[in-house]
Structures are given as C-alpha cells and as structure tokens.
Give the backbone structure.
Amino acid sequence: MAEIDTSGGGKKGGKPKGKKMSTRVDFTPMVDLGFLLITFFMLTTTMSTPQAMELNMPVKDETIKTLIPASQTVTLLLAENDKVVYYFVDAKTKEPSTPIITNYSATGVRKMLLKESRDRNRVGIDSIPVYKKMFAEHKMTEEVLRKRISAIKSFDKGLIVVIKADDKSKYKNVVDILDEMSICNIGRYAMVDITPVEVEMIKTVKL
Amino acid sequence: MSKNKTPRKSTSVDMTAMTDVAFLLLTFFMLATKFKPEEPVTVETPSSISEIKLPEKDIMLLTLDKDSRVFFSIDGEKTRVEMLNKVGEKYKVTFSAAQQKEFANMSSFGIPVAQLGKFLDMKPEQRGAFKQTGIPSDSLNNELSDWVWQARLANNDLRVAVKGDRETSVPVVKQVIKTLQDRNVNRFNFITAMEKAPK
C-alpha cells in the first residue's frame, strides 16, 4: 500500500549508484501514540447521560387538605438497617393494625404491595401485564399503553401508600421504596413526615 | 534467467492500516468526548429501574454526600455569574472580576458564601485539597435556598436534579426537599444508577 518499491528495478550493470535508502517509514511509534490517545479519550469520556427518577411533591399550601379513606391506605415506615414497618388503619375503628416488619426484597415489601394493590383493583392490576405483552407484540401503541396504565394507576378505589421515612433510614431506602411504587404500578403515594407515635411504633416492632 | 536465490521476504508488517484505524477511532473519541466534570466528592448513587434520561443542559444539580454535605452545581457560565452576583449581594459579599471568571469555570461547590471569595482565589490544585464544608441548608441559615432561587431567576428553564449517596441520611434529604418546595420547586429528579426491572 504505502510501501514504495525500492528494489531498484532490477537493472543490471547500471552505473554504480549510491546505496538507496529505504523510503519506508516505521509507523509503530505513531500507532503507539494513536492508541495511547484513544485510551485517554475513552477513559475521560462520559458517554451515557445519567438515569433519573422523577418525583412530584405537592404544592406547599396549608389550605389544601386531602383526606384519604383509611381502608385504602397502607403506611410504610422506613426504619433503620434497611427494614420497613407497615401497618393498616381499620376503616371503622380508625385504629392502626399491629405493625409488621419486612425488608426491601422482592418477597418482602413488594409482595405485600402487589397483593394489597391487586386485592383492591384486581381487574386493573391483572390487565397491566396483558397490555405490556400486547405492546411487546406491536398490537398496541406506546401512547395507548401509557394511557391505559395511568388510568389503572389512578383508579380511585386503589391502594394508597403513605411513605414515612424515619430519621435513621438512608436515602437509598427512600429511592428503593419509590422504585417499588413504579415496579408495583402504584400511582397514588405520598411522602409524609413521620410522627412521634410512629417512631415509637418502630421501636415496639423491634423488640 | 533462473535465479538461484529466492527473494528475501520482508519481515516488517505494514502498519499503515493499523494507523488508519487508530486515528479513525481517535478522531471519533475526540469529537464525541465530553469531559467528566470534576466533582469535589464521589457519590455512589442508589439504583432504580427508572429509564428517564436527564437532559444535557439546563440542569441544577444538588449533590448530597454521605457526610450530609450539600454541593451545588449548575451549567451555563452566564447563569453562574449572574447567580453569584445576586447571592453575593444578599450576603454583602462582592466578587472581583477574576473571582467571577473562576466561578464561571468551576464545577460544583459546597461552601458558605462568606468563604467563597477566598476559595475562588485559590489555585485549582489547592482547591482540590481544600475540604469543603457543604452549603448551609438548615432552617437558621439556608443559603441553599438563595442559590436555588437565584439560579431559577437567572435561568427559568432549569430542571432540578438531586444526586444523593446511598448512605445519605434521610433528614438531610428531607431538608433539601423542603428547601426546594419552599422555592416552589415541586418537581425534581433523583439521579440513580440503572437496575434491571424485575418481571
């Protein structure tokens, strides 16, 4: 390719010429340099934009008060050491049920949330995987899928999750539980400050 | 005309093709590269299944590290200078032109306004070694609130992103969220690492 024929054309008996220098250049250092720079740029570059999860908080307005029916609510208390304590409120007596301790695994809080949410909206929750499958098989457009799922999520008899993070819990726990909300297709949830009563409740469960 | 000797084959490999490839890749990376902004703290973000991508610009980033320090960063040099002067005005701190220029080129910072001038006078290598204390964000002295407010005044299209370490304690996160809410930022993003969604 870039080599130049320096064999001299094979003339015999020509004039005695000066020894021909090879015009071939050794590219090896250049390649070395090239790859060195590539490595540098590869390591310093940021290719992927970061992932983010969205959180919408209500507008701060003391005059707006949303009352939620107790029978639809589950309260999750995020405790220390990656534990979750949850309890329900009885619709009639308004008394909280015995708190139950669990963790962030698939068999822990997620199982409970899926069950509770399905109990309250069986048709809706069961149809989500069907819609998703239809979307995967190109039988449904993304727009329709999104609309249907958001309709299911905002079902007004569905489960409402109240998230209360204890001061000893970690940021990771908050993100995890918000993530569970999207995994379990729970559309109605709120982050609320923990009350002293609930702090005590966490302590009783531990004992 | 038969030769006795077979012509000697050259043992050197033609490097040209390899050079071509190397430089092609080099060019690609040079053009595609965007340098990682230098960050004063390393933060290990929690993971989530969310697949929302953050936009490249108009981002206000609040970094919370595991020692509960708050760092602030925002893109756009003009926005930064404008914001700096406004915040300085409020805290009666003036910044020289050189300091403003430094600030415009700096990435995130986490230092009270009163010490910011001194911090900007430092050489970049000194700055790396300097231990930043984080922006005060408690209810008594909430400088973060002013930064957020002035940043939003300087650039109205800002999106707010919170990048917290896994081990950041919840009260700090709550305080930051409250600060944002007080400034009418009710919609924000938590930056997370990717995680595979369960079936």
Q: What stands out?
A: Chain A touches chain B through 52 residues (CB under 8 Å). The CA atoms of residues 58 and 190 of chain A lie 9 Å apart.
